[in-house]
Specification:
With 283 residues, the protein is mainly alpha-helical. The protein has eleven helices and no strands. It has one domain. α2 packs across α8. The radius of gyration is 18 Å and the shape is globular. It comes from Paenibacillus radicis (ex Xue et al. 2023).
Length: 283
């Protein structure tokens, strides 16, 4: 089962980096994110309604969903801000790195999970590599404060909704597919007003309709694979492994978006990969 979870998480990380690349390339980040989740929400809404009709939630379930929903709202709002003010190869590892650090620690405290000594070393390599990629070559006098602040906020929100969703699944309140739809709806509701104010829906669709259609499956598909992995493996193990997406994201940012500090960021990506291998095999 651990091997299956590992494959699911690796696939999740790849898809995550792809839709983040698309978001960075979009005209209006809010409009793009709204459209890819609007289409996936429409596809999954009937399933959610059927599940809620057959298995109504109790108060505890709604409370946990509310907590997850709030963190998802913060995530999507801050994500667009991070990409508006910072480079993908910089802010992506920063926000993922904080989540990679906080989620395992909180999982050990809340869910009584454990990591081996090698697992802790692997986690350390992942976190070190992530933050090294983010901050290497940055002039302290010219730090993009808005990008850093938004990225830190994203990392905190990732931690919050991941822990809430793990609890929801672990207590059997919802299936992964229904929980995914809750995530989609949080994005659609949160971004509706900024999108309408922007009046750029037609412009975004005309220029990026292919990326929007692919993103419709990549974004929810990424989190769906991760939710499936949550059901069969400890969160403290699989959450850092998902940061393989940062390796892909860094390479995409350097090779496709022509962002700077390529060689050193690739070297730091090797530390992340080594940490992932250590955690996945011996964690």
């Amino acid at each position: 089962m651990i091997q299956i979870a590992l494959m699911l998480v690796l696939g999740s990380g790849l898809l995550h980096s792809v839709w983040n690349l698309f978001t960075k390339q979009s005209i209006n980040k809010n409009v793009f994110l709204w459209m890819i989740h609007l289409f996936s929400s429409a596809l999954l809404l009937p399933y959610l309604l059927i599940e809620l009709d057959r298995h109504p939630l109790e108060l505890e379930g709604y409370t946990l969903l509310g907590i997850s929903f709030i963190f998802q709202i913060g995530y999507i709002l801050l994500l667009s801000k991070a990409y508006q003010h910072g480079e993908m190869s910089q802010v992506y590892p920063m926000m993922r790195g904080l989540g990679a650090l906080l989620v395992p620690i909180c999982s050990i405290l809340i869910f009584q999970e454990k990591l081996s000594a090698i697992g802790w070393i692997g986690l350390g390599l992942i976190v070190f590599g992530l933050f090294a990629i983010a901050f290497y070559g940055m002039n302290p006098k010219n730090m993009p404060i808005k990008a850093i602040t938004a990225a830190v906020g994203v990392g905190v929100c990732i931690t919050g909704y991941t822990l809430a969703d793990k609890t929801i699944l672990g207590q059997g309140h919802m299936t992964p597919l229904a929980l995914l739809e809750i995530s989609n709806l949080s994005y659609v509701v949160t971004l509706l007003i900024p999108v309408l104010i922007s009046r750029q829906i037609k412009q975004e669709w005309a220029r990026n309709w292919k990326l929007i259609l692919v993103g419709t499956f990549c974004s929810p598909g990424s989190y769906f694979l991760f939710l499936l992995a949550m059901n069969i493996a400890p969160l403290s193990h699989i959450s850092p492994i998902r940061e393989i997406g940062t390796v892909f994201g860094t390479l995409f940012g350097i090779w496709l978006l022509k962002e700077q500090q390529g060689f050193m960021r690739i070297m730091m990506s090797a530390f992340i990969a080594l940490g992932i291998i250590s955690l996945g095999i011996w964690g």
